[in-house]
Amino acid sequence: MRPTAKRTSRTKSSIRLCEEKLSCVVVNAEAVFTCSECKTAQCDKCEKSVHSGIKFEFHNRRRLERPSPDKLCQGTASGTACVNRNYADVWCEDCKHRLCLDCFDKSHAQGRRKTHKKISVNEYHRRQLRALQDTVKPLSPVSDNDDSLTYVSCPQDISLEENMSFASFHSDHSHPSSGGSIPDICQDTNEVNLMAREMDAFLMDDGRYTECQSFELANDQEELQVTSEEEFMEKLSCNKDAMVKIISIFGNTGDGKSYTLNHTFFGGKEVFQTSPEQESCTVGVWAAHDPVNNTLVIDTEGLLGVTSNQNQRTRLLLKILAISDIVIYRTRAERLHVDMLNFLSDASKAYLKHFSAELRAATQRYNLSVSNIGPAVIIFHETLHTDVLQLRGGKEGITPEDLIRGKFKKSECTIDAFSSLHYVGTRTMNPPTDFKPLQKAVKDLLANNTVRTARRPAVVFQSLKCLNEKFSGDIDKPVPNTFPDQYFTCTAKCKACGSRCMRSMNHDVDEFQHQTEENKHCQYQHQYGNKIYLCKKCMHAKGQRKVVVPKTSSSGDNTWVGLGRYIWSGYVLECPNCGIIYRSRQYWYGNQDVEAIVLAEVAHIWPESNLGLDGTHNAARKVLDSLNYMADTIGSVSAKPTKYLAEWTADQIAPAYWIPNSKILACAKCGEEFTHNDQKHHCRGCGQGFCDTCSSYKRPVPERGWGLEPVRVCKDCLQGEAKEGEAPVTARKVGEVVTSTLGAVASAIDYPIGMLKDSARPAYWIPDEEISQCYVCSTEFSYKVAKHHCRACGQGVCGNCSPAKLPVPSRGWDYPVRVCLKCEKKKDKL
Question: For labelling alongside 152, which of 187, 358, 428, 752 has CA 20 to 30 A away?
């Protein structure tokens, strides 16, 4: 719920406060703008601060409009000042004023007004509606099935009035039952006349367009058909000092783009050619001048049509879009298609990455005045059987523009380059199409000069010429893929060379290894260590591929003996058939190179594979594992005696009113029984034994001799008072200080051990600081969930996801070690 100024539970203020609170000058500053991307209302200062960067300057922002005065409290007329500008709650039948509840109570608390009668505002509107409906008279009697009934006036219900959104320009003229808009027969006569006058001012009679005609601006090969500014002016038939805005239209072929422009800007005159034939009547780019509205209207070739080079056509359309002030995307479909989302997203990316920089360069090169902000986009959506997008959730609910932005986000598309996005929907069940909503949307955007202003036609020509010279030349044709092989083949790619596996999907179920096309050779990458060693004797004599990996010790050596030999003789290569075939430092000098003993082969590195030489040197980790095993064994054997001894020692120095540890079997508050791993705590107030949760409170207990420092107490003693009478607590205080000191020493010892563990980590293990959750079950690690490493893949796993122990000879572990559930399923490949 949005914040309002001094809102109470009885009234509702019309003042909307700033929700950013970033650069507000005063507390509770009044909001002036609302941003559909930020989803917040903002004051002047915050709006400038938030949208100062280039990343946010294209956000769709609009100025908040004050509510209609006939909805607000008339407290001033009744002698009170409604400082919060509240909405009216009641109607005083005697004063004939709308008042909020606060103002009504103030002005009618005493005197004659105390007896005034009040009713709710909604009830007052309902009465007015019924009274006006009684005055509605049809002009002529018609049958029940005739839908041509015309009324002199028909007042709108207040609920319908609140759900109207002229910002989105919805139309449903051919389907009066739809809730998206009010049919013409239900509009007040004055309102209809006003809209008609506005449309007449925007779209004059056809006689004004007698001399208008279109000309080819660029052909389908991206070649400009106008060579100079003078020729451009002559074909436009306009003054060189005229100030115009550019409006272009895009959409799929056959959706009626040329027809839309003719009826929106030229009173139905066929300025742009239309045809009932199957062949497209618009090839390339055509332009015409609208003298009434001072606009340069551009018609473009339709998308999805047959062309020699689809990429070249798309590049031409994107260049036209870049110089436009208003872009109309015309779609005639029952639902919005993904091709529209992809085209507008590509246009946005192209504008930000290429066109904006080139347009800025053109401003300096030709001394032009070109806006760096992208055009406004109008999506003109016409349906036949389905409803158009409509406002949801009331006046401040989800708009059609919000729904469209959600579709862009779901499709991973972006429209950051466009200055604003508008939706115009119309459902045409009985032709012809009603273009008045589109005309109104274009009219409002033409009148808005805050983002893009009109400019001379010469500037338009030079801008288009600049972009066409910069982005031209040959472009590859899209290669049609009649059989999308990647839909059915394995998605794995080699990390080193990028080659794709050519086997079918999920081939690992059949225990087939990854395989590239025609056994393509891989490239050696040092960071992956994708070089494997093969026993030369087994390969030549027996024809067997036996992979050997560098290890700290042989399979017959224990940890300590293997470590000693590793320090003295270096790493070892051990073949399963031939035994030890190589030691890196077997002699003091003259040791052979490893590749003279074995066959080296560069292998593909597939995702989750265990190949490669990196990480097989694990001598330090083996030593740490041995130490940890020894420490865990000693600790588990001596855990219970140590705990009993600690509790007995604590009882010897405990105050007299404390319950001995030996008699505390369960928490005195929650009743949960203690186990040998649970810590017992004493309340300093009552001396009872509690668990950690029930004794996590602190307050001074001076009546027991604990001084004025906060100490541990239970919940009951936190709210009450402890019993009077001091007890000797000095021994206990000294014991706590000693315990804290020993704990600090233990922490200081744990720190270098942690550093040692990290330094002993094999190279293929993921560092502890980069692991936040289990690799298998995605459980977050905490002090209760220990972090372990799988010896096969090196990922961090929890104890539940690594219960098995298996040898991993490919990583240098010849004896059973911890592996995760995923690697356990691939035990034959370890």
Answer: 428
